Amino acid sequence: MAIQTIENRACVAYGIKDVRHTSLPLAYSAEEQVLVKVSRGGICGSDIHYYQHAKAGMSILKNPLVLGHEFIGVIAAVPTGSALKVGQRVAVNPSQPCNKCALCLEGKQNVCRSMKFMGSAQFNPHVNGGFSEYVAVTEQQCVPYADNSKDSVMVFAEPLAVAIHAVHQAGDLVGKKVLVTGSGPIGCLVMAAAFNAGAAEVVATDMSERCRELAVQMGATLAVDPTDTESTAQWAEEGGYFDVCFEASGSPAAIASTASFTRPKGTVVQLGMGHNTVEMPLGLLLVKEIKLVGSFRFIDEFTTSVRWLESGRIDPLPLLSAEFNQDQVVEALELAGDKSKAAKVQLIFA
Q1: Is residue 270 domain-shared with residue 212, that is, in the same domain?
Q2: What CATH code is carried by the domain that includes residue 323?
Q3: Cα–Cα distance between 162 and 301 in angstroms, integer?
Q4: Measured by CB atoms within 10 angstroms of the end CB, which terminus of the chain is less buried, N or C?
C-alpha cells in the first residue's frame, strides 16, 4: 500500500488553552482513501472543552489532537474505481464504526464500542479531526451535495444529524406537543427537526434571553425562562402537558423537571451530557409510565441531514454567530466558549 505525504496546516490542541494553527503533514493511502480539501468547519462543544480543559467528558488529551468533527470540503483525489469525483463538494461523516461487531451488524453503529470518531481523544492514539487544510477519509464517509448549496449551511450537517436522530428516538411526532429544554445549537436544531417530523407545538426553555430568541427564530411556538414558575407550573397540571420532552441542556434541574412536564405514557429523550449524576423523580416515571430514552450521535441520519439542508427544508443560519479564518482558531474558540455571545462559530479553510 503506497503512502503519500502532503503539506498541510491544521488546528491542533496540545493542552489547556493551547491550540495552535500549525504545519502538520498528512500521510494517506491514495489507493484506499479519499483526499478532501476542507472548506469550512463548525466549532462544537467538545472542541471548546478540549481547548478549555484538555478533555471532553471522559476523553482526556494525552497527545496533540487535530480538532473538529463538523466539516465539509471538496474532493481533491479519489482511489481508482471510486464513485466519487474530483471537485465534488461533500459533507464528511466523522463516524468510523468498525462495521464488524454485533452492534454494527445490527444497524446500531452509533453505539459501536470501537467507534473511531474524528476529533476525539477517546482512544490513544487519538483520532484527528477535520480542522485542517486536508483530510483523508473513506469513501463511505463522504456525502456529496449540490454545488449551489451554501457552505455556511451545509457545515451544519453533523449537528443536524444529531437532532434528527433524537427525533427518531422519540418515535412518531405527528400532532404531538413537544418541549425542548436547552436552546443551544442542538436544542434549536431539534426544534426544527421536530416540526419537520410533524409536531403540532414545540415549546423551548432556556435561561438565556438570547437563546430563547434564537429558539423562536428556529421555529419554536414559545420560548420560556425555566425560572418563570408561573409559566411552567401549568405544564405539570393534570399529569403533564407534553407528549415528548427533549432534554438538551444537561442541567440537573431541567432533567428532573421533564418527569413533571411529560404526560402519562409520554417520552423523554435525553441529549444533554452536562452531569453524570442527577436526581430524577423515579416515582413519577414509574406511575406515569414515562419512557426515558437516550440519544447519542446518529446513524443514517447524517445523509438525511445533508438532504434536508441541501433542499432548504431547514435553515440553520439563525444559529451562525461568527466566521473566522483557520489561523484565527484561538479567537474563534474564545468566542464560541462565551455562550452569552455566540451559538455556532465557523472556521473557513478555503
Answers
A1: yes
A2: 3.90.180.10
A3: 8
A4: N
Domain that holds residue 106: 3-156+316-348
Cell of 274: 452536562
Number of domains making up the chain: 2
In a domain, 21, yes or no: yes
Which amino acid, residue 279?
Answer: E
Residue 11 and residue 135 in one domain: yes
Closest CA to 72 of 95, 120, 38, 44: 38
pTM for the full model?
Answer: 0.97
Q: Do residue 175 and residue 150 come from a single domain? A: no
Tell me, yes or no, whether 7 and 128 share the same domain: yes
Number of residues that make up the chain: 350
Per-residue pLDDT of the chain (350 residues; tens, 9 = 90+): 679 999 999 999 999 999 999 999 999 999 999 999 999 999 999 999 999 999 998 899 999 999 999 999 999 999 999 999 999 999 999 999 999 999 999 999 999 999 999 999 999 999 999 999 999 999 999 999 999 999 999 999 999 999 999 999 999 999 999 999 999 999 999 999 999 999 999 999 999 999 999 999 999 999 999 999 999 999 999 999 999 999 999 999 999 999 999 999 999 999 998 767 788 899 999 999 999 999 999 999 999 999 999 999 999 999 999 999 999 999 999 999 999 999 999 999 97
